[in-house]
Specification:
Elements (H helix, E strand, L loop, with lengths): L1 H16 L12 E6 L2 E7 L8 H9 L7 E4 L13 H7 L4 E4 L11 H8 L3 E4 L3 H7 L1 H9 L3 E9 L17 H11 L4 E5 H7 L17 E5 L20 E5 L5 H8 L4 E4 L2 E2 L2 E2 L1 H10 L4 E6 L1 H9 L5 E7 L26 E9 L2 E8 L2
Parallel strand pairs: 3-4, 4-5, 6-13, 6-14, 7-8, 7-13, 8-9, 9-10
Antiparallel strand pairs: 1-2, 1-3, 11-12, 14-16, 15-16
Length: about 375
Amino acid sequence: MRREDEKFMRFALELAKMGKGLTSPNPCVGAVIVKDGKVIGKGYHKGAGRPHAEIYALRQAGRKAHGATLYVSLEPCRHYGKTPPCTNAIISHKIKRVVTAMKDPNPLNDGKGIMLLRRNGVEVKVGVLEDEAKKMNEAFMKFITKKIPFVTVKVAQSLDGKIATHTGDSKWITNEVAREYVHRLRGKVDAILVGVKTVLIDDPLLTARPKDRKIGKQPIRIILDSKLRIPLNARIFSKALSGKVIIATTRLAPKNKLEALKKKNAEILIVGSRDGKVNIKSLMKELVKKDIAHVLVEGGGEAIASVIEAKVVDKVLFFIAPKIIGGRQATTSVEGAGVNRVNRAIELKEVGFESIGDNFLIEGYIKD
């Protein structure tokens, strides 16, 4: 039974991945209904306000669901939100057994769905491939429990830690395969955040542009700009681009520039300041209110230092190219004040290494 449970739960997790980039602020969830060893229904959550994975699977199975086993990557909900409770549908379809990878961390549910199913005679097993399920929904878990976005820092640097030359040139440090990886990653997050210096030097689009063009929605583009130095003709304001632009600024911003940016359809967020810069923790609290659950910080060195110093970073991705740039004035991947002693350096846990062509990816989570 254990091997069979893992087999079908793995299928449910694969289905859940199909919702990456589409479901936020909801979790990615997949569901599979099995009877006599055969799949009779399957589905995944396709977006907030749309049916949950279990509902798609139950619709497909129909009356055959009677006496079957439901495999679902997250505990079925029992509360009313934008959609009715899944537990009611599971009970009414007379599902005999439910296998779920993990409890729902949402305080509105958090074990209540499991309890209701058991009270109605449904056998429930919890914890099959739990670690995989939690990793898939790591952003949702932080967002729903701590009311702050999950923050990933992405760096593309040379062997000597440079993200640009002393002239500001940065195209391209990493290879094409690494850049494609990042475009796919952009399509799975809610927002991309950069400092205004990156806009001034690189004039980026900050959009997801994978080669196969398979993208559910474009991420929100967030610019840290305490004094509104951003040019009105920056490419991120192009009418051809979909997705919202948010300028995070402070009370130091000139009012005439505020109005000009509003005419560019940019949303202005005035938050508290710290040492003349945007207060990162205050900004994160505002982003949660906008249902932004996962933020990808892409640079530059000062912006990355700001989020690290604010202690809001959860995960880092360092793409390293076999190149040496050098130069005292060349920008490093993490600027800021830095630590004064090596034993105070920020350490990573769950570190992974991956070859990407002739580049390397080092990823890990910030140690508590």
